[in-house]
Amino acid sequence: MDFFNSFFQNVKDKLTNPFFGTLGFILILHHWEFWYTLFNFDADCSRVEKLAILKLMVAKDFAVRNLLEDIFLTVVFVLAGYLVVFGTRALSLSFDHKLMTWLTKKVVSKNVVLLETHREVVQERDRYSEQYEEQRQRVRNFSANLDEQTRQIQEKDKLILTEGAKVNELNISNAKVTTELNREKQKNESLQNANDEKETQVDRIENEYNKSVVYMGELEKELYEFKTIFFDQDKRYGWNSPDKFPLEILNKVHELRDSNEWSHFLKLYNAMQNGGSFSENELLKFKESGLISLTSDPKLTILGRIIGFYSNIFDDNISM
Fold this sequence. Notes:
The protein is mainly alpha-helical. The chain has helices at about 1-15, 20-30, 30-40, 45-60, 65-105, 115-230, 245-260, 260-275, 280-290, 300-310, 310-315; strands at about 290-295, 300. It has a two-stranded antiparallel ribbon with strand order 1-2. A hairpin with a 5-residue loop joins strand 1 (about 290-295) and strand 2. Helix 2 (about 20-30) crosses helix 5 (about 65-105). The radius of gyration is 45 Å and the shape is flat. The mean pLDDT is about 75. Keywords: Membrane, Transmembrane, Transmembrane helix.
């Protein structure tokens, strides 16, 4: 029951959609002969004749060109409808909020002001009133703070007299400390210069590393797209002829055949794919041909994988 409710609700949503509703209306008008024939066959027509007639009409009326014309007309009518709604709405709002307001101001009285202007004036007055009260409160606070500061100044004047002698003694000690501080400062500047040079080197290394990371990311993305073209389940059936492969791959196959290395490479490919054994000399030989990579563990390059994966096509279709 829920399935049917969901189905009919989905149909209802599609029909109430402006685009699908207009499309259905255009399909009915544009192909009225088909719909009329669908429900009004002659009494002497057999079921086979009816089906044959319907097939001919479907092939004629619902061809790709006709469907594209129906969709185009639907888009035109929908856009035209939206433009009409937009224009009438814009005209109505302009009349209500612009023309009527201007006309009322001109006809009734020159002393009449817009409600919006009145509200702005009231808000500005209230804002100035609040600022005035805030300033008065600040003046009171400043006055109280001034009295407190005056009392504290008088007390501090007394302390200054008693602390003056101590300041003289501290000045003497401060001179000694300043001399030592200057000496340490010079050492610190030397260390800081050395540290700045190290930081500059670190920044340069980090920039180079970040660039290499971005470059590797781009290479991995391109490699993934390249693998998808040749090894994706849906696309591998398209590579059914050597003529569809790039010239670089075909040249490499001819090179292996001319050097009598074709069968050796296929054995190495099967061994690497199925976990068999292979010698280091074979790896080095095919590394020079660009079919094996020895950067970390031995593995096939993309070129090697493509040639090995589609070796049956090259065996059947490429002559020596």
